[in-house]
Amino acid sequence: MPRGPKKHLKRLNAPRHWNLGKMGGVWAPKPSAGPHKQRECLPVAIILRERLKYALTGKECQQICMERCVKIDGKVRTDMNYPAGFMDTVELEKSGDRFRLLLDTKGRFVLHRINKEEAEYKLCRIQKVYVTAKKVPVAVTHDGRTLRYPDPDVKVNDTVKVSIATGKMSDIFSFEMGAMVMVTKGHNAGRVGQLVHLEKHDGSFSIVTVKDRKGNTFATRQSNVFVIGSGDHPQVTLPKGRGIKKDILQERAEAEARGDL
Fold first, then answer.
1. What is the widest separation between alpha-carbon atoms in the chain?
2. Do 192 and 181 contact (CB within 8 A), yes or no?
3. What angle do CA 171, 244, 37 make, to 5 degrees?
4. Residue 128: which pLDDT band, with cuts at 50, 70 and 90?
């Protein structure tokens, strides 16, 4: 009998949104245990090899990491399988690159290039708020941070702005009608819009309705939405397309206009 967690991951079982070729080998990098779930993250090896093309092989990814070139959320990470996830900042000082991991409208991770000012903070969704055994109020975020003595106004599902250097929170973006949200899971992952309605179902999943800039409405679970700003002002710059999902006819028409077809 095998004991303990699996240490390998086969290509065919890797998450679809990593976009790994089916024939490119047998194995895929198995993400280490870390702040993001295995199927909702992007290992550093894939960022370096498949996305940025700074490495050709896994060995080269390892060398880049061991030379302390890769910083995630301001900390050097030497593990090439470290799981970077939604809203994380990836910094490569040697090449002057800074990215934030966001989602495109097809639910895939995008390395969205950002400037130095924006790389100094990130948004974190509050997953739970409680008081410890020693009477310290804490808030736990989506990326595994524990914020001690948070602002008493912070509620679950809100988003807080966290400074990467200090780990302290500054602004709160409440989960309320009219808030700007990005969907992080499900069929609508990567879409951006405004909250227009919340249906509470006790004992089941609460459903929210979101309306995007073009007036399209769609519904998803409350746990799938991430507040990224208030009104029409996102706190992070959005990737190409600004979270507006196009249907296949619009995509085709745009490709024809560009001359790609």
1. 65
2. yes
3. 60
4. very high
